[in-house]
Amino acid sequence: MSVTGLPPYDPQNIFARILRGEIPCKRIHEDEFALAFHDINPLTPIHALVIPKGAYVSAADFHEKASDAEIAGFWRAVGHVAKSLGLDAEGYRLLSNMGGNGGQEVPHFHVHLFGGRRLGRMVPPA
Length: 126
Ligand code: AMP
Description:
By secondary structure, the chain is an alpha+beta fold. It is built from 4 helices and 5 strands; from the N terminus they run αβββααβαβ. It has one domain (about 15-115): HIT family, subunit A (2-Layer Sandwich), CATH 3.30.428.10. A 5-stranded antiparallel sheet has the order 1-2-3-5-4, with helices on one face. Adenosine monophosphate binds near residues 40, 49, 104 and 105.
């Protein structure tokens, strides 16, 4: 188990394969620290995913182990992606599922970026 209660990082997870170019994605942005692409099953008119380049299982794993430069670079990329998608004026939601209770399906830390419509106060239950 990792520090987060999740299994150790699996280099065959789907986002690791996207990072290696083994699986295509609809890329929005890429830099030294992060890759952003459109979610394959969008829940809102705009639904992007931002992932760090490094091998981190979850939000907890990333914030515990990543360097300051990786953390700053990642979050700067999140802001850049939101702006580049034209979401700053109307607003948007950031969300990261963490572990079992959080409903995390892909064990590579990622932030969902939802926008393009009124989202209500919280995400409704699945
Ligand atoms: P989570 O439940 O937070 O782990 O969310 C994983 C997200 O990854 C879901 O919203 C999926 O629709 C999305 N997803 C899974 N496979 C792909 C893929 N190949 N390309 C883009 N998004 C994906």
